[in-house]
Amino acid sequence: MSVEAHIRKIYYSALDKIVKYDEFKLLKRERQPPTNYMNTMISYGNSMMYSTTLTEILKTSMDPRIGYLHASNFRRYSLNLDIAEIFKPIIVDRTIISLVNRNQIKPGDFKGVQGGIHLNDSGKKKFIKEYENHLNTTIQHTKLKRKVTYKRLIRLEVYKLLKHVVENADYIPYEMS
Question: What are the structural domains of the chain?
């Protein structure tokens, strides 16, 4: 977990080089509540990714309460957090970068809350629309030899994990090629 946290810190510092507009620089990762636009979108996007992943897990026979990376002692579900780690850079971060660099989301799409900022209704609508676009993007699945959406790919990842647990098959997490 500490290795992942260190890598994520380096990765987040690279976001500031990718986004075109200074007001959307991350500077440093913070949560609860986030105090800048980028942190707000990361937190919002991650929560959407956790929800999407949980929905896909519930369509299988896997128990979402049993995780392998995140502790399951004080959370109701943790498997969705584990699987979401694979897809956050592909879906959430791409959503954020697209919205910012295309100038689709602006400071007016945020509102002040006690101690920080959140997306307002118009910002949420823009974010959700772009998030859904990324989730429904199709890619060529090399093993299945057909196109699948990223949303379907999340469920396929759960099935790979299930096969690992039930049949002791090697589990190789999805990697973008």
Answer: 2-136 (1.20.120.920)
